[in-house]
Each structure stands twice: as structure tokens, then as C-alpha cells.
Amino acid sequence: MTEKREINPVLKQVLELGPPLAFFGLYLWLKEDVFLFGGQEYSGFIVATVVFVPIVLLAMAVNWALTRELSRMQVFTAIMVIFFGALTAWFNDERFFKMKTTLVYGFFALLLGIGLLRGRSYLAYLLSDAVAMQPEGWMILTRRICLGFLTLAVANEVVWRTMSTDVWVKIETFGFPIALFAFIWAQFAALHKYMDLEDDKG
Questions:
Q1: Are 20 and 49 in contact (CB under 8 A)?
Q2: Are residues 77 and 110 in the same domain?
Q3: Which of 39, 58, 92 lies at the terminal end of a domain, its last residue?
Q4: Domain-terminating residue out of 26, 59, 92
Q5: Where are the alpha helices (DSSP H) in the chain?
Q6: Residue 78 lies in a domain
Q7: What residues have CB less than 8 Å from 117, skipping those under 6 apart?
Q8: Whole-model pTM?
Q9: Pairing state between β 34-37 and 40-43
């Protein structure tokens, strides 16, 4: 059995945040350019998307080499990036990559929603080893996070359909992650009373 390894927290953040920041930098660098491949013109956004795919795979490979572990969320997100990145390049249509965010957030909301319908918290399954919380707290948190993911999915649809690519890239890179982090942090703070577990077994 492969043993999980711990890595430096700073390096972990670099591997997680590096790819989207790299995409953002590539987009800013290439957005005014047009590239000719196989007799077809591609925008800087399309080229940045294509380059983004191997960057994501490289970050995952380094993470695997160092920890011998990849989360289901990492694998799913990478699959979505590869799939929609390929569609974006094949059809030369940036809308595919923009829709990817909607589907990722929507999938997470759907997954948590299925668990709630079954009376279970999949968040507890994923995070209970790291966070001690009463079952009632996990169910409340799961409902709120499910709603949060659904809201982000809808927000992404509104943003990419009504705003410029420039605005979408900035919101995708910074706005949505910051909003999600702040929302989750606020929920843990609001549910702090459910974390005060007492041992009643004596």
C-alpha cells in the first residue's frame, strides 16, 4: 500500500494556486494576439487555455510524486479542464472553457445534494478527519455549501454570457475562489458551537 506523504504547506498552495494564476498571466500576455495554426486563427484566450492543460497536469504529477495521493476533487477538476480545454481548441470556441466552471460548481452542488437527499453529509465523509463537528452541524454546513456551489454555478453563467472575456477571466481567477473561501470560512465560524464536542462517556 502506498504511504501518504506530507509536503510543505507553501509548496502545496503553489501547486494548487499556480495553474490558475499561470492561466491568468498567459491570458494577459496573449489576449491581444492572434495565432495561426493549420490555416486557422486562434485567439490568445484559446492558446492560453491549451497551454493551461499541461500546466494542470504537471502540477498534479508533482503533487502525486511528492504525496503519493490525489483527491477525487483534483482528479475531477483536471478531467474537466482537459475535456473542455480540448473542446475549446477543437471548435476554436472559448465558450466551452467558460462553461467548464459552471459544470464543476454544478457537479459539486449536485453531489452534495444527492447526499442530503439520502440523509448524509458527504462533506463529513471528506473532512471529518480534519474537523471535529457534530452530525447536525455537518448537515447544516453541507446544505449551505451545496447552495453556495449552486450560486457560483449560476453566477458563472451570468458572468460569461453577459460580460467580456476580460471580466470573466478576472472573476474566474480571483472572484469566485475568494468568494468561495470567504463563504466557507464564514460558515465554519457561524457553526462553531457544533465543533465544541464534549465527551459524555465519562
A1: no
A2: no
A3: 92
A4: 92
A5: 9-30, 44-67, 72-91, 95-117, 122-127, 135-162, 165-170, 176-190
A6: yes
A7: none
A8: 0.83
A9: antiparallel
Shared domain check, 178 and 121: yes
Residues 56 and 142 in one domain: no
Instruction: State which residues form the domain around 134.
Output: 94-195
Cβ–Cβ contacts within 10 Å for residue 18, how many?
16
Which of left, alpha, beta for 92 (phi over 0: left; psi -120 to 50: alpha)? left
Q: Is residue 201 a part of any domain in this protein?
A: no
175 shares a domain with 109: yes
- Max distance between CA atoms of the chain, in angstroms, equals 76
pLDDT per residue, tens digit, the chain (202 aa), is 455 567 777 787 888 888 999 999 999 999 998 888 888 899 999 999 999 999 999 998 888 888 888 777 778 888 899 999 999 999 999 999 999 999 999 999 999 999 999 999 988 887 776 778 888 889 999 999 999 999 999 999 999 999 999 999 999 999 999 999 999 999 988 888 888 655 444 4
Instruction: Give the chain's domain count.
Output: 2
Helix (H) or strand (E) holding 41: strand 40-43
Instruction: Give the gyration radius of the chain's Cα atoms.
Output: 19
Instruction: Give the Cβ contact number of residue 52 at 10 Å.
Output: 22
Q: Note whether 30 and 56 are within 8 A (CB).
A: no
